Amino acid sequence: MSDIFNYEIKIISAQETIPVRHPVLRPGKPIETCNFEGDNLNTTFHLGIYINQQIVGVVSYFKSSTNLLTETSQYQLRGMAVLTEYQGKGLGNLLVQHGDILLKAKKTNIVWCNAREIAIPFYKKNNFNIIGEPFNIGDIGLHYVMYKSLE
Ligand SMILES: CC(C)(COP(=O)(O)OP(=O)(O)OC[C@H]1O[C@@H](n2cnc3c(N)ncnc32)[C@H](O)[C@@H]1OP(=O)(O)O)[C@@H](O)C(=O)NCCC(=O)NCCS
């Protein structure tokens, strides 16, 4: 449950995610490293959570399938990030819950992600399960594929 009640979640552009993606996911790296392939496809969507008109958290969803699962209608969650000073207040939960609602409206069966090891407890709290073996992504470190079924 969130202890911040004055929040707003909006669909935003890829560009609007950068003020959160950059400090949280690519600190000290060039701004271009915050752009993901497929960010501007019309099947991709991005959510931002705002407190007092300031964007403090983002998540993006890409129409993409993992070959670890056979369901045909899958979306990949990427770029999950909440500004450091706003973490641990339930905002990440709110973003994922909102994403689930929009994915269900698109008749999506599975949402999955490449979860950093450190974020596994967060995804578990949000009903994701690990599938397959861990793997390394560049210099970011060990990741696990995690997924959940959307009824
Ligand atoms: C991961 C992240 C998005 C979570 O957002 P958040 O707003 O801090 O998470 P919430 O406050 O909504 O936490 C949701 C639940 O996960 C749990 N959780 C979150 N981070 C956790 C951690 N590191 N260890 C254990 N539990 C954790 C919380 O206790 C909470 O449980 P509850 O619902 O029972 O209260 C955020 O911490 C972040 O941006 N981290 C750095 C970037 C990152 O690692 N992104 C993921 C890349 S795969």
TrEMBL record:
Recall the GO molecular function terms of this protein's record: acyltransferase activity, transferring groups other than amino-acyl groups
Where on the tree of life does the source sit, at the highest rank? Bacteria
Q: Which Pfam families match?
A: Acetyltransf_7
InterPro entries named among the record's database cross-references = Acyl_CoA_acyltransferase, GNAT_dom
Q: Which residues form the N-acetyltransferase domain?
A: 7-151
**Protein name (record):** GNAT family N-acetyltransferase
